[in-house]
Amino acid sequence: MPPSTAEPLSTTLIGDGGPLTVFLHGLFGQGKNFTTIAKALAPGRSSLLVDLPNHGGSAWTTDVDYEQMAAAVAAEIAASGRGPAAVVGHSMGGKVAMVVALRHPELVERLVVVDIAPVSTSGMSQFADLLGALGELDLGTLGSRSEADRLLRRRVPEDSVRGFLLQNLRHRDGRWVWRANLDLLRSSLPRIGGFPSGLDAAPYDGPVLWIAGGDSQYIRDEHTEAMRALFPRVRKVTIKGAGHWVHSEQQAVFIEVLRRFLDGPS
User: Fold this and answer.
1) Which positions are catalytic?
2) Engineering a disulfide at 15: which of 42, 51, 79, 200 sits with its beta carbon 3.0 to 4.6 angstroms away?
3) Does the global pTM surpass 0.90?
């Protein structure tokens, strides 16, 4: 299938030399979440930080579809003229990355999947709760970001999680708005938690690194069979002391593991 001709995604390029690494964020995230990691890979590697549809600076859509998101990412890699690229995806972005590799293998030199598996994901109620908490904020009467933080504290007591969510809040044209398409994401949680079936694609035969958080439940032993069926050259690494947001909770270890894989044999 040729790359998508849909509206281009919002991207940021860090570095101007060396092989290209493409970073795909998870639900509520933005490409800039990987800025520190991308800078750590420079100057030997350049990085393309992608805002997936309905997030960050990218356009909102009428539905959530992994194959469409993957086609849009493939189009960005093709347009860069620097492929094939290493593709790194976390959570929802990891599912997008897997579909990119399966549907557009000529554009993917190697693949990194962070704390997610090619199966239907349990535990989406956590994200439903977070979306509900954000939806309760009355942006029409909101006075400041600090006020939003205070109002969210009861429903979201973890400072780091609140800070992550509030990256999506912007003051534009005299009013507060969400950069993420919260209504669509809320109604699409079952689809976001799933994984496309019937992709009609051969297994991806490039090298694959599968990173799990030691304290996370998103990758389980029973997922290994499904992962190996699609990605026979997969190698799993578990990072201790990390939950689902492995790349932020154990950033230094994550960078070292990632760098070794990116610099490894094809």
Assistant:
1) 91, 183, 244
2) 42
3) yes
